[in-house]
Amino acid sequence: MSERAKAAAAADEGPEIVEAADAPEIEGEREISSTELKAIAEALIFVAEDPINAKTIADVLKVDQASVSQAIESLVDEYAERPGGLQLREIAGGWQIGTRAEHHEHVRAYLKSKPSAKLSLASLETLAVIAYKQPVTVPEILEIRGVQSPSAIKTLLDKRLIVAKGRKETVGRPMMYGTSKEFLLQFGLKDLSELPSVEDFQDLAGGTGE
């Protein structure tokens, strides 16, 4: 068969069909450079309403969690080295961008200047007792404060600052209470080991809305 005949026969057979397996990968499977990954992780941490962890970021980007953790650690170092007012901190099992501790006095002064409802003194005292003595029962709170705290307990439960921690194995089996993850979020704490001194607690609690 002549070359011209071969060409005509090939044209009659139509264009070559590309198998699906040979098609390019869909978006989301591409490789992400370490520089880009760090920038994306920072953006996600910034826009997230709650602290976001490395696994969540890895799932969103379809990359391995170890790479995300490394990118975050690099970001933590960068924030620590730059003389800015923000820092990247691990809070309640995730990461969040917040203000530096040395600027909290000025930040609190600004927040106090804004009109907002705050915890009542009774709720604040009750929360302090629960935070430092948890798990604790209502009778134990009464013994420490010297006054009843039913409305304060309800307020703190409504705000999700405290949660029930089971019943105490004693007469009447009273309910025990402790602080919640929301408490850690509101006060910017990694865990309960970062609780401030009792003297500083009232200033920190002043910014929580009622």
CATH class of the largest domain: Mainly Alpha
Largest sheet: 3 strands, antiparallel
Element order, helices and strands? HHHHEEHHEHHEEHH
- CATH homologous superfamily of the largest domain? Winged helix-like DNA-binding domain superfamily/Winged helix DNA-binding domain
Structural class: mainly alpha
Q: Helix and strand layout, with pairings?
A:
Blueprint: H1 3-12, H2 34-47, H3 54-61, H4 65-81, E1 86-91, E2 94-99, H5 104-113, H6 121-133, E3 136-137, H7 138-145, H8 150-158, E4 162-167, E5 175-179, H9 181-187, H10 198-205
Short description:
With about 210 residues, this protein is mainly alpha-helical. The chain has helices at about 5-10, 35-45, 55-60, 65-80, 105-115, 120-135, 140-145, 150-160, 180-185, 200-205, and strands spanning about 85-90, 95-100, 135, 160-165, 175-180. The chain has a three-stranded antiparallel beta sheet with strand order 3-5-4. A two-stranded antiparallel ribbon has the order 1-2.
Describe this structure in words.
The protein is mainly α and 210 residues long. It has 2 domains: 34-99, Winged helix-like DNA-binding domain superfamily/Winged helix DNA-binding domain (Arc Repressor Mutant, subunit A), CATH 1.10.10.10; 115-205, Winged helix-like DNA-binding domain superfamily/Winged helix DNA-binding domain (Arc Repressor Mutant, subunit A, Orthogonal Bundle). The chain has 10 helices and 5 strands. The strands form 2 sheets. It has a 3-stranded antiparallel beta sheet with strand order 3-5-4. Strands 1-2 form a two-stranded antiparallel ribbon. The longest helix has 17 residues, at 65-81. Strand 4 (162-167) and strand 5 (175-179) form a beta hairpin. Helix 2 (34-47) crosses helix 4 and helix 6 packs across helix 8. The model is unreliable at 2-29 (pLDDT under 50).
